[in-house]
Amino acid sequence: MEPEKIAVTDKTCRLCLGTKARTSIIAMNKPTSKKYSYIVENCIALKVDDEEGFPKKICTKCIKLLLGFYKFKKSVIENDKKLRELLIPQVKNNPNDIESRAQEVINTIEPATEQMHESPLVYIAEIPLKDENADIDEISIKDVLSDDSSLSEAESEDKSREKRLTCQCEICGKFFSCKSNLTQHIRTHTGERPFTCDICGKKFFKAEHASIHKRIHTGERPHKCLICSHRFIQYAALKAHIRTHTGERPHQCPTCGKAFSQPSSLVYHQRTHSGETPYHCPTCGKGFKNSGNLNIHIRFHEDHRPFSCKLCDRRFVTSSHLNLHMRQHRGERPHKCVVCGKAFLRSEHLKGHLVIHSGQKPFACQICPKRYTQSSHLTRHMKTHDRQADVKMNTSEDLTEQNSVKESNNVTQMTIGTISNNWTEVRNFNE
Fold first, then answer.
1. Phi, psi at 231, each rounded to 5°
2. Structurally, how many domains does the chain consist of?
3. pTM of the model
4. Model confidence over 113-130: pLDDT tens digits?
C-alpha cells in the first residue's frame, strides 16, 4: 500500500493536516496565557519544536478541541485536589485503609493512562464532556463537539460568517455581527469620539480604547511576557513582543521582501517606498506616515507635556522620553557594547559608538575630503569652514577698504594738483 501523499504548505495544520490553518502554533492563547505548543505538549505529550521543519500553524477546529481538552483536564485536576483535601483527613484517621485505597487509585488510573498513550485523539473524543458545569472559562464544550464538526473548515467558516454578519452599514455597505459593532463603525464615518480621557482630554471611538490609554498615565502594565517578564499596556503589544522571541514575522513587504511582526509596521514601511505622508500638521504642514507621530509632533507646537517625572517634576512630550529619563535616575544603561563593554542609555548611542570599532566613517564633509565616525564630529568640523569663510570675508573687506582709501587719496592728490595748476595759470593770466 502506497503512503498517502500530503501537500504541505504554509497553511497546513500541524495536528490534523488540514489546509486552513492560520494561527501559529507558537503563538499564545489569550484566555489561558499559554502557548498552543505548551498546551499540545501538556495534553497529548507531543512536543512541538520550532526548528524541526514541520508545519508551524494550527487550524480553528484543532484549537477548539485542544482548548476544550486542556480546560477539561485542568478542571479535573482541580476537582481531584478538592476531593483529596476532603477525603485525606478521613484516611489519616483510619491508617489501615491507606494501602487498599492507594491500590484502588492505581487500578483506576493505569487503564486510562494506557488508553491515552495508545490513541490520544480518540481518547479526547470519547471523554463524556456533557455536564451541568460545561461552561469552563470562555470555551464552551458544546462548541467543541457541535454538529458542525462534521463539516469542512471552509463550510463551517462560511456558515458561521452568515450567522454573524447581520447588521449592514448604510454608508459603505460593510456587515457587522451586532448593532454595537455597527455603531462603533459608523463613528469612523462621522468622526464622533464620545469617550474622553479625564487626565489629558484625548478622545476615542471606543470605551476600551480610553481605558487602555489611561494606563499610560497610571503606569499600569497588566500583560506580562512569560519569557522575559517584560510588561505591556495592551495585549496586542505583548503578542507582537513575543514574536521577538520566536522570530516570527508573518507580514512581508511585496516590494523589498522585508518582513514585520505587525501589520501596522508593514503599512508604515510601505509608505517609505511610496513616499506617502497622509497625516499633515495643521500648524507647519509637515507630513507624517502615521497619526501617532503627528500627534506627538503637535504636542511640540503646543508645548504639551503630559508625562511627568515623580522624582524631579520634569515633564515630557512622550512616555518613551519619560522612560529614558527614569533610567538616568536609576542609573540604568541597558545597551552595552560587546567589544569594549561601554554601556549607553539609548540604543542609537550604542549604534553610533559601534562605528568607532568598525573603522567606518559614514559622515563626509561636502567641502573637503575629511570623513568622521559621528555626525556631531562632522558638525564641529563644519564650523571650522564657517570660521575660514568669515576670515576670508573679513580679509576681503579689509583689502577693499584699503584699496578704496588709496583710490580716494589718489583722487584727492590729483584734484589738489589740478587746482594748483589751474590757479597758477589764472595768476599768470592776471599778471
1. -110, 155
2. 1
3. 0.37
4. 344 344 333 333 333 333
